[in-house]
Amino acid sequence: MNRKIMMLMFSLYLLLAGCSSNEKDDSASKVQDEKAESKMDASISGNKVQEEVAEKEVMTDERKIIHQAQLELKVKNLEKAQIKIENKVAEYGGYVVESNVYREDEELVEGTITVRVPEAHFQDFLADSEGESSEVVGRNVTGQDVTEQYVDLKARLKSKRAVEERLLAFMKDAEKTEDLLKISSDLAVVQEEIEQLTGQMKYLENQTSYSTVTITLSQDRIVVPGIDNKELNTWERTKKQLATSANLLLKAGSGIIVFIIGNLPILIILGGAGAVVHWVIKRRGKR
Predict the structure, then answer these.
(1) Could you tell me which residue ranges the DUF4349 domain spans (predicted)?
(2) Cα gap 231→115, rounded to integer Å
(3) pTM
(4) How far apart are CA 119 and CA 209, in angstroms?
């Protein structure tokens, strides 16, 4: 009897020990999964901290300044001045953005040239352009310092690339499908942000590497009046004047004839009365 009781207790002990072992294994596995997930989330959530640290560490050796200039020049010969300015642009390694010439009236020709020249030759190009003018009517130069903005973009890009590398490493080690999907989604967002930051940095680099200059050229022109051939055609003018004189004579003769014939009765009466008066006066004179 005692032996049976001992065997029963021993079996119960083995059963309890087996259950306890299984619970420990499940608990350990769960803890391990939670640690892995926590590690991945901590890496992703630490993105902002990495950005702040990287931003403080990143420094730039030279300032990033966007230069722009507007010149208003008077020139003696617009075409020659325009050609010389465009040649200078090519000589300095720049390029012409826009060039046009137009007339406002017969006495004024104007032109506008917009160019981009390397930042290193910005001041030299302004001096050369002003040297082609007879008068500098206006000059406006501006500079926008974007150094801080560029440094911020550079720091954020460095941080995003670090996050990208970590996500790629997590993706290699991921075993569960749900973890792989989550990492892929986070990686796509980070890579899109990297493309945006890279584009913004390239834009600032281009704007600071090349300066934009807009030049307005004006040329006063003296217009010599042309010879009017109509005014110098003597024969035509003579015929015209002769015809005018003949018309005046014809009009005068026609007027006289019309006056005489139209007033003939009155003229006859006046003529008869005048003859009678003349006869009376003559007869009295004889007496």
Answers:
(1) 63-277
(2) 50
(3) 0.54
(4) 5
* Amino acid identity, position 276: V
Q: How far apart are CA 113 and CA 135, in angstroms?
A: 17
Q: Which residues make Cβ contacts (< 8 Å) with residue 150, sequence separation at least 6?
A: 60, 64, 201, 204, 205, 208
Q: Is 127 helix (H, G, I), strand (E, B) or coil?
A: helix
Segment of 7-16, 57-66, 101-110, 275-284 carrying the highest mean pLDDT:
275-284
Q: What is the pLDDT of residues 19-48, one digit of tens each?
A: 454 444 444 444 444 544 555 555 545 555
Q: How far apart are CA 132 and CA 47, in angstroms?
A: 55
Amino acid occupying residue 37: E
pLDDT digits (tens, 9 = 90+) for 182-197: 888 999 999 999 999 9
Tokens of 87: 């040649």
Distances, alpha carbon 124 to alpha carbons 59, 92, 121, 223, in Å: 29, 9, 5, 36
Tokens of 76: 């003696």
Are 183 and 167 spatial neighbours (Cβ–Cβ below 8 Å)?
A: yes
Report, in this order, helix, strand and coil percent for the chain, each rounded to 5. Answer: 70, 20, 10
| Backbone torsions φ then ψ of 144, nearest 5 degrees | -115, 115
Cα three-residue angle 285-286-287, rounded to 5 degrees: 95
Please, are residues 65 and 146 in contact by the beta-carbon 8 Å criterion?
A: yes
Strands (E), the chain: 65-74, 95-105, 108-118, 135-145, 210-220
Angstrom distance (rounded) from CA 270 to CA 264:
10
Dist CA 24 CA 4 (whole Å) = 31
